[in-house]
Amino acid sequence: MIKVRHLTKKYGSITALDDVSFSVKKGEIVGFLGPNGAGKSTAMNIITGYLSSTSGSVSIDGYDILDEPTEAKKRLGYLPEIPPLYPDMTVDEYLDFVYELKGAKQKKEAHFNEICELARITAVRGRLIRNLSKGYRQRVGIAQALVGNPPVLILDEPTVGLDPKQIVEMRTLIQKLGEKHTVILSSHILNEVQAVCGRIIVLNNGRLIADSTAEHLGESLGDGRTLLLRAAGEEKDIQAALQSVKSVKRFSKTDADGDTKAYSLTLTPSESARSELFFAFAARKIPIVEMKNAEYSLEDIFISLVNQKNKK
Ligand code: ADP
Ligand code: MG
Q1: Taking ligand 2, which is a single-atom ion, which protein residues have CB atoms under 5 Å away?
Q2: pLDDT-flagged residues of the chain (< 50)
Q3: Which is the closest atom of ligand 1 to the Cα of 12?
Q4: Looking at residue 249, what is its pLDDT?
Q5: Which residues contact 244 (CB under 8 A, 6 or more apart)?
Q6: What is the reported pLDDT for 219?
Q7: By Cβ atoms counted within 10 A, which residue in 34, 66, 132, 133 is the most buried?
């Protein structure tokens, strides 16, 4: 659906994007993850045809964004980092304006009813945009992207500036949009993209440094997988159980809370580690209270990825 080939963008001496290539299939929800200045907005502006690249190409559903911009743009809905909202228009007037601008063909009333319902802005359609909260404005920005029902949605930091409740609502909305659209969204927050994206593309200093599933990104950290395990039992029994499992390379106690003790385990790559652990603990009659993959921060991921690149 989206093909990005060898995209490079230079602003004078600054290289904002450096030979970035990837493809997105129909129906995928892909996250652009990277710190501020990584090149996320630049990439999105080029993909949507708002900015030209220094070199490289972008095609949307087979249409090159430079050679056939009208056909390509028809297939795109874009929520830029700073949505171009008109404060003196009501929501309906603004959507009308976007409808005309895009030359959309849908039956207007039914179409607007549908997208306003989806973006949950039906109640504020008659209000001036200037009087809307940040959360509602962001939703109007999404509704605007949905005008004309484009198959591809590009959302630049859709949760920035929202409060925790609005963030959860926005996530739910994006997941819903992902049922019918191909979506790329950007964020500098790891949890954000992990929560909604099946696949994560990591950008740093304009370079694509990782492209994998959210799960694999975690797994690629460190030498193997890290698992957090909490069990109720005597320390020496727990340690004996851990030592008996071959795929546990090493472990360290992270905390003790009353009767339970938590351990961080480094595992060799193995499909069966979890079941081996389960049976080893069951054989010793030690209840496992909790077992989960360790969670990583964006910082952990960058340090690990950059170290891996340096090793190569
Ligand atoms: P992100 O969206 O990941 O925060 P950007 O794409 O906005 O990153 O920026 C990437 C790099 O390009 C940064 O170093 C930024 O300072 C630079 N940059 C972005 N826009 C411009 C511009 N119009 N002129 C000069 N440099 C720019
Ligand atoms: Mg940005």
Answers
A1: 40-41, 81
A2: 222-224
A3: 25
A4: 87
A5: 280
A6: 61
A7: 34
The residue nearest atom 5 of ligand 1, judged by CA position, is 39
Q: What was the pLDDT predicted at 293? A: 77
CB neighbours of 188 closer than 8 A, spacing ≥ 6? 33, 34, 35, 36, 38, 40, 157, 298
pLDDT of residue 288: 95
pLDDT of residue 222: 47
What span, in angstroms and rounded, lies between the C-alpha atoms of 278 and 282? Answer: 6
At 221 the pLDDT is 54
85 alpha carbon – ligand 1 mean position (Å): 22
Judge if the beta carbon of residue 33 lies within 6 A of ligand 1. no
Q: Is the CB of 38 under 6 A from ligand 1?
A: yes
